[in-house]
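S.,

Sequence below, as promised.
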Amino acid sequence: QVQLVESGGGLVQPGGSLRLSCKVPRNIFNITSLGWYRQAPRSLRDVVATITGTEKSYSGSVKGRFAISRDNANSILYLQMNSLKPDDTAVYYCNAVSRISSNRYTNYWGPGTQVTVSS
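The prediction came back faster than expected:
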């Protein structure tokens, strides 16, 4: 089964930075969007940032601090996280949406990488 693979998580102090990476397998075709999601303790998985075409979108809590980008040549999705806060602590998941047909899509996920922000 095709799976995305995240890396770059770890323990960081408040105010610090991390950059997450996601390797997107080249055999995932017709990708319509890429994104990062996170699941904090005792919370549901929620969107952090997405790229759809050339349009980037961020959740309000990370806007101005996080930046999503991609390296198309190497099939890597990045999430640069700056000014990290304890509330950013979560498991971060990489996501790709593939269009199967005109009205049918498939989500691909990675296993997640833990980000812990603590002093």
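The two ends are 38 Å apart (CA to CA).

Coffee later?
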